[in-house]
Amino acid sequence: EIFILLYRDSKIMSRRQTLHTVKKSLSCISRRMTVSCFNSKKLYLPQIRTKVVICFLSASVRTCTSITSSPINSIMSNTEANRSYSKGSWDGSDKTGFDSLTHPGYSAESNPENFTGGWHAHRKVWEENNGDMEDQPSDWIKEIFDDITKYDYESMDIGRPPRILVLYGSLRPTSFSRKTAYEFARLLDLMGCDVRVYNPKGLPVRDPALEEEPKVVELRALTHWSDGHMWVSPEMHGTITGVFKNQIDWIPLNTGSVRPTQGKTCCVAQVNGGSQSFNAVNALRLLARWMRMPCCTNQSSIAKAWQEFDDNGRMKDSSFRGRVVDVAEEFAKFTAIMAPVKDSLTDRYSERKEKAEKGRLLTQAEKEKEKKKSIMVEEARKG
């Protein structure tokens, strides 16, 4: 991180004029430069991977401006980003490329051609009125910044920010599950987590013949990448939506000897059109158990969700919003603690024995084939 401190003479140049000059100068360095401004007496920065920070100081005001010089929230289209990155950095086979904090998937918009990327769509709200220091929208998350638990993950056993994949269960652009998922993502961002939100648009209905589709490849790579999942689904007909279940169906319980979800943490939430219910979160917990994912004990169920959000898609102050903060805070702690011990917790006798005998874990198809072979050998011996 690079920090630059500017002292301006208020008699010569206003804050807005200074910012405009800085932006114009920095645009010569990178076309992918965006600026987010925050009016606050206390220093607040969203969790941005590479940043140049410019503080305007005067006798009465301290304004902090965060300028991103990485592709995060960049003006470079995701289509261009897809072309500039190799296939391996999108399907996860190039682990270094996929894990990189400068991956083009960290953008505010998904690729219009195949809907990949857009992992930071929840940050678009922080770009509103970009560059206008005097007319910034209020943000309840910024207001509670000092009261949220934040950890120095580098000094913990995990050694880095927890990697969180956020999934939601609706395709409607203004859906309440999406809005809730974005609020969770912003909170987890604020708590120092590395957050990627998956856009379910463009994901085909589960069909083994479509495993090479970009959205399928992206979802599976994100699952391998993550330490934990944040799941948000509407309740429909007493259970989760087909849109959400389809995402889960595309995540395999095992890929050869690799079990993508085993030991990863999970946190669940649901939104309701009517009175409060817990059918969806109970269904989500059942899925997590079958996928061998330890679930966070806390959860959120938002009743009459249409009353709980303002016109900008932000949660209103209520007990439901307080619970969302509680859940996000517990989930960040839970994942940071669980991720380093995942392999130890999932080290099983039967799997160690199979690896010792076969050299690796076999797929179910391979096990069935060996079983049939042993039956044939036994029958031949008896005959």
TrEMBL record:
Which InterPro entries does the record cross-reference, listed alphabetically?
Arsenate-R_ArsH, Flavoprotein-like_sf, FMN_Rdtase-like_dom
Q: Which NCBIfam families does this entry report, sorted A to Z?
A: resist_ArsH (TIGR02690)
What organism is recorded for this protein?
Pseudo-nitzschia australis
Show where the NADPH-dependent FMN reductase-like domain sits.
162-307
Write the protein's name.
NADPH-dependent FMN reductase-like domain-containing protein
> Which molecular function terms from Gene Ontology are attached?
oxidoreductase activity, acting on NAD(P)H, quinone or similar compound as acceptor
Q: Where is this region: Disordered?
A: 348-383
Task: Identify the domain of life.
Answer: Eukaryota
Q: Pfam families annotated for this entry? A: FMN_red
